[in-house]
Amino acid sequence: MQKIIILKTKTLKKNNVNIVTLGCSKNLVDSEVLMTQLRGNGISVSHENDANQSNIVIINTCGFIDNAKQESIDTILQYADAKKKGLIEKVYVTGCLSERYKDELATEIPNVDAWFGTRDLPAILKRFKADYKHELVGERMITTPSHFAYFKIAEGCDRPCSFCAIPIMRGKHVSKSIDELVKEAKGLAAKGTKELILIAQDLTYYGLDIYKKRNLSDLLKSISDVDGIEWIRLQYAYPAGFPMDVLDVMNERSNICKYLDMPLQHITDNMLKVMRRGITKQKTKDLVAEIRSKVPNIALRTTLIAGHPGETEKDFEEVLEFVNETRFDRLGIFTYSHEEKTHAGDTMQDVIAEEVKKKRAEEVMAIQEGISAELNAKKVGNIYKVLFDRKEGDYFIGRTEFDSPEVDNEVLVDAKSNYVRIGDFAEVKIEASEEFDLYGKVVN
Ligand code: SF4
After folding, report:
1. Running DSSP on this structure, what letter comes out for residue 177?
2. What is residue 176's DSSP assignment?
3. Which residue, judged by its Cα, is nearest atom 4 of ligand 1?
């Protein structure tokens, strides 16, 4: 539940905007771009900053699946209520939920001043009598710790996955040009960003629209050449049509993390067909094997869905077997959410009970927990380059190149006997391990 702290606003003359972001890192980048444009127009802006006296709140919503939608609606209602109480003057809503349900929401929650879609940045700026400043393209205020930044290389998606509403909310795939992205990377590096986490709906589709070929490898080379960028991480790769030349660049360039996030969503031929994933079980297994043979110590992350219509007990047994034998380094699982206007939402019945979906997801995570514990135990005694993100309680907490922020494992070093600066790298010798965490000491 989003905490709301707002001070009385009557005395404020100048607009003071607080942006609240829900959902994924792609949404976060949109909020950061909006903040940059508002600030570029002289409007003071902050991100989920409790201490700030803001008279206007912009909520950047998520509309992906049920839980996320509910969280967005709850947040909107809270700020609409704060407006009713005179704590703030205006509430604007943007992002995926607004893109998808603008008309219904405007009727149900009249206290919101305006609803915007996912591609309405100029319209939002207009509300502030501000213009879109092209000279700021490539500039970005970041809301993550300054040493890492999410780096969105494209918007939208052309894939037909049965369960997914993202193409409805984000439109067709549109790649940013390599020049624009290199300019953005240089701008971030100049401000101290060391790690870029490349994101898109489908990272591996990059370039097919503007360069008429899969061009992620060329983009990687160009970004890898940017001074100051020490880690480049790949998230949201799509299995079908995976561009293998990306792995060659990963091997050639030491600042590209040996890490790949590739949501598979399922593994049986029956379900990959039903989910319209455009790949088979054998091809998926061959791809995983080839990626591991080309980049031997790569950390593979994947995401699965439990309980999609059509999934049989036999399908699920195959999933358990696949997870057991493939031993992913990192794995997450969602329960299927029946989304209208998606292929599954419009043509299939959501017949699998929620508790069955939940039980299947828990069974998979129980296996993964065991695998993660075993893989982590093997890291004891090894030394890893760690990027430190924060200090929490008695520990400095960081990540190896095999870990993405917020979703993967962390490395904890005792703050009483070790000193590191947040945002710095240090060599850490691993001394102990748990399912999802490693403990160590700084060795240089
Ligand atoms: S690749 Fe599939 S799951 Fe991912 S955003 Fe596109 S349609 Fe959705």
Report:
1. P
2. P
3. 201
Asked if residue 32 has its Cβ within 6 Å of ligand 1, the reply is: no
What atom in ligand 1 is closest to the CA of residue 170? 5
DSSP designation for 300:
E
**pLDDT of 53 above 60:** yes
Look at residue 229 and tell me whether its pLDDT is greater than 60: yes
Could you report the per-residue pLDDT of 77-99, keeping only the tens digit for each? Answer: 999 999 999 999 999 999 999 99
DSSP string, 125-173: HHHTT----GGGTT-----S-TTEEEEE-EE------TT--HHHHH-S-
159 lines ligand 1 (CB under 6 A): yes
Looking at residue 436, its pLDDT comes to: 97
- Report DSSP state, residue 329: S
Q: What is the pLDDT of residues 382-409, one digit of tens each?
A: 999 999 999 999 999 999 999 999 999 9
Distance 166 CA to ligand 1 centre (A): 6
Please report which residue ranges of 173-257 form alpha helices under DSSP H.
Answer: 178-190, 216-224, 245-252
Decide: 62 in ligand 1 pocket, CB within 6 A.
Answer: no
